[in-house]
Amino acid sequence: MPEHIQRDMSPHSLPDDTDCGLRPQSLDEYIGQKETLANLRVFMAAAQQRHEALDHLLLSGPPGLGKTTLAQLIAAEMGVNLRATSGPAIERPIDLLILLNSLQPYDVLFIDEIHRLSRVVEEILYPVMEDLSFDRILSKGAAAGAVRHKIAPFTLVGATTKGGAISSPLRSRFGILFQLEFYTHDDLAAIVRRSAKLLNIEIDAEGSLEIAKRCRGTPRIANRLIKRVRDFAQVNGDSVITKTVASYALDRLSIDECGLDRLDRLILELLVNRYKGEPVGLSTLAAACQEEPENLEEVYEPYLLAEGFITKTPRGRQAAQRAYEHLKLTITPRSS
Ligand code: ADE
Question: Is 66's C-beta closer than 6 angstroms to any atom of ligand 1?
Fold first, then answer.
């Protein structure tokens, strides 16, 4: 981890760092999210010209699209420290105040899963974000009352997989709102080629495209898959990852040609077969899959929705036409 990055995380809230070595080290190395990056560069340059902290920034989007990476790159590019924590790790108001007090001027404070901040902690953030102040309540003696404290300018970078769960008072205090999108196949293939180089493995254009097509639009998954494909290639004595090598490995991992894994397919099968195409509530579906509703909603659903496998109606989740087409191709007949 670079020296300017410090972590304040409870163990359960550590972000997935498995692709740490493959993460871009500068904005120039960052592939994809072109519009977001172009705008970000303008906002950072303007803040630097004015000798100000970058405005507070909210990054929304499904897991693995690069929210943490972007926060790290912003701090690096602005030449400041990054303090990284997460919503659930800031349990009490005092935890937040200690964090804020420890910041150097212009530092970036990264709060992952910011939608999981408690209400009391969130309310302390409002005046902090608005005018760099917070009130400390003194309840005892002659000095009873509120004492206003000021803190140095800083940038709050909030990240959330549940943009809709951010309260409007909190959302309205962010000056910059970015919604990260699933990556295109071309961008993912470029990420895979870059990672292959860093991992010292040879991959051809079709091999990288195959991984790109099967990684659910997500760089973190692409980087995980290339490591597993490399394992198969190594053990089978393949010196180059071709389409054949990549397909073989991904089939062995039960990742189908659309990038869907077992749980994705189970969700579709339940919606089509058990619930006969009727809308199903999230908790019912989660119980049928033996999964946490949050995992379905924040990790699985966004890709299935974006790719047109399911739709969301006021009465619940429903299989879309593409789910029927997909299952027809991949469903295995039951042996009776
Ligand atoms: N590794 C993971 N995400 C990446 C990205 N967006 N660009 C380059 N390398 C990456």
Answer: yes
Catalytic residue of the set 8, 19, 68, 317: 68
| Ligand 1 atom at minimal distance to the Cα of residue 31 | 7
Task: List C-alpha distances in Å: 170 to 40, 164, 210, 289.
Answer: 21, 12, 41, 34
Give the pLDDT score at 1.
Answer: 47
Per-residue pLDDT tens over the stretch 11-50? 333 344 456 689 999 999 999 999 999 999 999 999 999 9
CA 217 / ligand 1 centre spacing (Å): 12
- 23: Cβ below 6 Å to ligand 1? yes
Ligand 1 in reach of 190 Cβ (< 6 A): no
Percentage of the chain surpassing pLDDT 90?
Answer: 84
Which of 183, 191, 197, 221 to probe ligand 1 with, by most ligand atoms within 8 A of CB? 191
How remote is the CA of residue 290 from the centroid of ligand 1, in Å? 32
Q: What are the backbone angles phi and psi of residue 263, rounded to the nearest 5°?
A: -70, -40
| pLDDT band, very low/low/confident/very high, at 266 (cuts 50, 70, 90) | very high
| Rounded average pLDDT over 318-330 | 84
Per annotation, catalytic residue among 220, 224, 230, 317:
220
CA–CA distance from 199 to each of 192, 203, 226, 251, 308 (Å)?
A: 10, 11, 9, 22, 34
**Per-residue pLDDT, 282:** 96
CA dist 191 and 22 (Å) reads 9
Pick the closest to residue 266 from 239, 296, 236 (CA basis).
296
Work out whether strand 240-241 and strand 202-203 pair parallel, antiparallel, or are unpaired: parallel
Residues 6+ apart with CB under 8 A from 247: 210
Closest CA relative to residue 114, chosen from 27, 13, 199, 200: 13
Measured from the Cα of 29, ligand 1's closest atom is: 8
Name residue, tokens 């309205």. Answer: 172
For residue 166, how far is its CA from the centre of ligand 1 (angstroms)? 26
How many CB atoms lie under 10 A from the CB of residue 43?
15
| 294 CB-near residues (< 8 Å, 6+ apart) | none
* CA separation for the pair 80, 6 (Å, rounded): 12
